[in-house]
Fold this protein.
Amino acid sequence: MRAPGMTFFRMPIFVWTFLSSQLLQLFCLPSLTGALILLFFDLSFGTNFFKPSGNGDPILYQHLFWFYSHPAVYVMVLPVFGVFSEVIPAFSRNPLYGYRSVAIASIGIAVVSSVVWVHHMFASATPSWMRMFFMVTTMLVAVPTGIKEFAWTATVWRGRLHLLTPMLFALGGVVMFLFAGITGIMLGSTPFDLHVNNTYFVVGHFHYVVYNTITMGIFAGFYFWFPKITGRMYAEGWGKIHFWLTFIGANLTFFPMHPLGLQGMLRRVSSYDPQYQGWNIVASLGSFLLGMSTLPFIANMVVSLLRGPKAVDNPWHATGLEWKTSSPPPKENFDAIPLVTEPPYHYNDNDPAEIARPEAAAQE
Ligand SMILES: [Cu+2]
């Protein structure tokens, strides 16, 4: 259903990342479904697929579970990489650096991430050849994700930056993902993983991916497409307050988990040794701040939806096809199917057209 002229290498990266995440859903999710059906039979009908007492294999359950549940993180994070790739060029007024590499890296991430699942089972009496193999594949993920981090950085480099709310969330997410990626490489190393297994270090790493990267990316997309979806502008000042409260709150909450894990604090416990109290107080205060940070977001969305100034069709001067129709789009999206004649992200550094401030982008 691509529009005429929309070749594969003219598709927005957001579409490439959805394509790769849906391939993962297609090929990896059935493993979890199968595991749950077998588990249901074990629990309800007395079969022994996973029960050691009946010669079943509990490790088999772990394999089937993680074969999907590692890629599940990429199903969430890939579209967010797509959001970064839309927002960063638009607010840097630069074409996305290395567009083709970023598109191919999206598929690369999907392929590599489907052969790394055993890194969740290094402590499950895994044979050493298996540990070695999955340690190498896990570290390989750094190649396509590194390509993306580099491309975003190079896009920002020498760009004319407009630090509006979607861009702040995208840049915040990219920086947080760098941190999450580095602790991910550390955990991919079997000896280190065994050392911090079942500690807060793992919890900290996971939240830097799922909150500090994915949730911030979702917020970036929310603000970026809010005028397109609703036809109204959000309040920029409240958006910035939301960003800073989120950025500070999330780091205060999740950073302390790394030193706590290295010191040996276990996960899934109801109480902890008093030696861990300092960092835990920091994390608790951060979590209250993080909870409160959502209030300006919800208020901004509700008030702007009802009473926000009307948005122009393309307030960010963005190049994507969705910006070439009205905001919000009519039911049929376009009166006539548009012809695509240009590559994506044809932003021009010398383009005098400034991104309008949301207040100025509003039309009465
Ligand atoms: Cu994993």
